[in-house]
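SAMPLE LOG
Freezer: B-3
Tube label: C17
Construct: single chain, 60 aa
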Amino acid sequence: MGLVERLLYKYVDAGTFPKPIPLGGRSVGWIDSEVDEWILSAVEERDYRLATSDRSAPAI
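STRUCTURE (predicted):
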């Protein structure tokens, strides 16, 4: 299992990424609308953090 796969399953186990759908054998897939929703949520969280961060700190 590669790095990306391990990271995905780490997020699945933490409940922060959609659960895979068994496809047979050792194959799984994800519902694209659930992954799209997860991506949009991550973008919103990032944008919120950027908007609320302290911009008065001097750049280094």
